[in-house]
Amino acid sequence: MKILRYEKEGETGYGVLKGDRIQPLKGSLFGSFTICTEEIPRDEVRLLSPLDPNKLILIGRNYAAHAAEGGKPVPEEPLMFLASPTAVIGPGEIIRLPNLEDRIDHEAELAVVIGKRGKGIPRDRAKEYIFGYTCGNDVSNRILQKKDGQYTRAKSFDTFKPLGPWIETDLDPSNLSVRLTVNGEVRQDGRTEEMIFPVPVLVEAISAVFPLEPGDVILTGTPSGVSPLRPGDEVQVEIEGIGSLTNRVEG
């Protein structure tokens, strides 16, 4: 089931995508909801980010080839950090570069949406706590990462966390294609089976530190091929079984 968030005539809501039409949801996204029989043509709405995350938890260097291209060692355990949820934007929105001097890269990532609260979740039960998956672009200022020695500022600027286009609730994340193009040119092309720490291990490791809660989003790391974004670029993240997330870049 593909669940999206949309805006129509100034009102926002959640719905289920059925071909080129949307059936609105009533109730709580992470609780009890019903699917309405009403249908809205998809071209009559504007897609938003599929949710406003509660916490945004990022995983660094989770693909060996990406660690190598950055000249960094592979971590012995998941390298986790937080970014501000206010950086999230949706499909079709603009990624805005705060300056044109710093190197600001794209990072295509599988995003995990948590649907149930849990602390100390064992990896073999991780699926019980996952609501679904979406596409993410972990836009990152490399100059500030190096300057700060940690990643929060470099990854938390407004518009630096595109998510979308919707949440796919029925998906096996173990071996999916993760692909990114800039102006139609392939820059990143990997598979989730290349993750050093797969999704269930990440859920276990994060929840050992603090509770995972409904609406939390985990960005699971990026394959190799990251490169700078420039004003005028069109960047597209495509993940097998989910869909594609497209954003333009402006200075």
TrEMBL record:
<dbReference type="InterPro" id="IPR036663">
    <property type="entry name" value="Fumarylacetoacetase_C_sf"/>
</dbReference>
<dbReference type="InterPro" id="IPR011234">
    <property type="entry name" value="Fumarylacetoacetase-like_C"/>
</dbReference>
<feature type="domain" description="Rv2993c-like N-terminal">
    <location>
        <begin position="1"/>
        <end position="50"/>
    </location>
</feature>
<dbReference type="GO" id="GO:0016853">
    <property type="term" value="F:isomerase activity"/>
</dbReference>
<dbReference type="Pfam" id="PF01557">
    <property type="entry name" value="FAA_hydrolase"/>
</dbReference>
<dbReference type="GO" id="GO:0046872">
    <property type="term" value="F:metal ion binding"/>
</dbReference>
<keyword id="KW-0479">Metal-binding</keyword>
<protein>
    <submittedName>
        <fullName>2-keto-4-pentenoate hydratase/2-oxohepta-3-ene-1,7-dioic acid hydratase (Catechol pathway)</fullName>
    </submittedName>
</protein>
<feature type="domain" description="Fumarylacetoacetase-like C-terminal">
    <location>
        <begin position="56"/>
        <end position="249"/>
    </location>
</feature>
<comment type="similarity">
    <text>Belongs to the FAH family.</text>
</comment>
<dbReference type="GO" id="GO:0018773">
    <property type="term" value="F:acetylpyruvate hydrolase activity"/>
</dbReference>
<dbReference type="InterPro" id="IPR018833">
    <property type="entry name" value="Rv2993c-like_N"/>
</dbReference>
<dbReference type="Pfam" id="PF10370">
    <property type="entry name" value="Rv2993c-like_N"/>
</dbReference>
<dbReference type="GO" id="GO:0019752">
    <property type="term" value="P:carboxylic acid metabolic process"/>
</dbReference>
